[in-house]
Design goal:
five-stranded parallel β-sheet, 12 strands, disordered N terminus
Length: 381
């Protein structure tokens, strides 16, 4: 349960796991980058750094066996264990997409055990001595990499024993299986005592967007943030590679991207300062796709919140672009949330994708590596 009392600038968080309450903390919310409350060490600054990506046990079972499961994905999803987990996970993600982490009376919270986690740690930096010390560790939930890396109830035959309601929205272009950072719960796991014992830590928030947590705009190790002036200049940027039209794709409103991002982020009070959309059909493809990451590096800073969607249905262009993200730290350090439809050969998707290079194992490896770099990586449908 997470309770925000923004008016008085106090954030009370009751951390709950499937085993019960982990801890209760009170943080001051503000635009300051100071780490401590009521401390003489007011010249210390806080920074957040990505620690690691930890898959859930459910995800690990798929990753470890994906070569064997390549040709029996739907059959595997239909077994009772995976089916129950799929239903519970989808219901939890739908709830979070609608209400966000502020939902205080959820009866679906026990399903968080099926979700994976991104871990971050706070670091204090003393600008005078340049010494640093470690602070609180948090983890934030993200949907697991399982099945076809998309809504597990959307591409396989429906199971008659399940209530019809669980299939509401389970279409080919289903976006129910995303957990955006702005909606994802976060949990405290441990902390190192501060220089002043018994002084609580501060989790600062984006001044304009209170649902945008600080590790989503200052997690990069390349971040040389020194003053809160930099923080105030931070932008929220959406780059849509393969945008088609804002509200539809070839007339299909369920396949839209621009409107979906706009509406879902707006739901949690997040406004994009910039939306940059690329569409190859009206452009010279030889030159148009040479520049997306050049443009990204020109406009974005490590303290910006950057969301990117890549789906242009052209693997020979998508492949080099995603590999640049994977292999170039000056690119992946700028990206906070990334959505990508990875076209490979798997029988359930052949009617839509045809025969493509690569297998489902390649998708699992790619998405895991990108999450291990600190990017909230999602499989666009």
């Amino acid at each position: 349960m997470i309770i925000f009392i923004i008016g008085s600038l106090i954030l009370t968080i009751i951390y709950v796991s499937h085993q019960g309450i982990i801890a209760t903390e009170i943080f001051t919310v503000g635009s300051s980058t100071n780490c401590l409350i009521n401390s003489k060490h007011t010249d210390q600054n806080c920074h957040w750094y990505f620690l690691n990506y930890t898959p859930s046990a459910w995800e690990s079972s798929w990753t470890d066996n994906i070569e064997k499961l390549q040709n029996i994905v739907c059959e595997t999803l239909a077994n009772i264990d995976n089916l129950n987990k799929s239903v519970l996970a989808v219901e939890r993600l739908v709830e979070l997409q609608k209400f966000g982490r502020n939902q205080t009376e959820s009866n679906k919270q026990s399903s968080d055990i099926f979700l994976s986690r991104m871990f971050y740690q706070q670091k204090y930096i003393n600008p005078i001595t340049n010494k640093s010390s470690k602070g609180v560790i948090v983890s934030q939930l993200i949907e697991p990499l399982i099945g076809l890396l998309r809504d597990p109830l959307s591409m396989c035959n429906r199971v008659n024993t399940l209530p019809a309601s669980v299939y509401d929205g389970a279409i080919g272009q289903s976006k129910r299986f995303f957990l955006l950072s702005v909606a994802a719960p976060f949990y405290i796991h441990s902390s190192t005592p501060s220089p002043n014992n018994n002084v609580p830590m501060m989790i600062t928030s984006n001044k304009r967007n209170t649902n945008l947590l600080p590790w989503m705009y200052e997690r990069s190790k390349l971040n040389t943030l020194d003053t809160e002036t930099d923080m105030r200049r931070g932008q929220n940027i959406l780059i849509d590679l393969g945008s088609s039209y804002f509200g539809n794709w070839n007339g299909d409103t369920t396949a839209n991207a621009g409107r979906w991002f706009y509406e879902h982020y707006k739901r949690f009070g997040i406004k994009f300062d910039r939306i940059i959309a690329y569409e190859h059909q009206a452009l010279n493809t030889k030159t148009a796709w040479e520049y997306p990451w050049t443009n990204l590096k020109a406009i974005a800073k490590p303290y910006d919140h950057v969301v990117i969607k890549l789906d242009i249905d052209t693997p020979q262009i998508e492949g080099p672009l995603i590999n640049e993200v994977l292999n170039d730290s000056t690119i992946h350090s700028l990206i906070d949330e990334l959505f990508f439809e990875h076209h490979i050969t798997v029988k359930e998707m052949v009617p839509s994708w045809g025969i493509q290079p690569g297998s489902l194992k390649d998708s699992y490896i790619l998405f895991t590596k990108l999450r291990q770099l600190g990017i909230r990586m999602h499989s666009w449908p």
